[in-house]
Design goal:
- The chain is mainly β and 67 residues long.
- Helices cover 6% and strands 39% of the residues.
- The chain has one helix spanning 61-64, and strands spanning 12-19, 24-30, 40-44, 50-55.
- A two-stranded antiparallel ribbon has the order 1-2.
- Strand 3 (40-44) and strand 4 form a beta hairpin.
């Protein structure tokens, strides 16, 4: 389980190292709103490696209606 006993108030990231040797990690974000489902965009470097995850919490109504 990656969620700590003391969860910070939302919105807040929670992270954990899942593999000490490689320092691989997992990050979860609580928005404090909605049903927990939101689109997430993946940013990649020129060589194709994943560099960024950008969740869209759809909190701007005009933009959310267009998705």
């Amino acid at each position: 389980m990656y969620i700590p006993a003391q969860v910070p108030p939302a919105p807040a990231p929670i992270d954990a190292i899942t593999d000490e040797a490689t320092e691989a990690n997992v990050i979860t974000v609580s928005s404090g709103w909605g049903d927990g489902v939101c689109p997430t965009f993946v940013g990649r470097a020129a060589d194709g490696h994943v560099t960024t995850f950008v969740p869209d919490f759809m909190v701007i109504p005009e933009l959310a209606a267009k998705v």
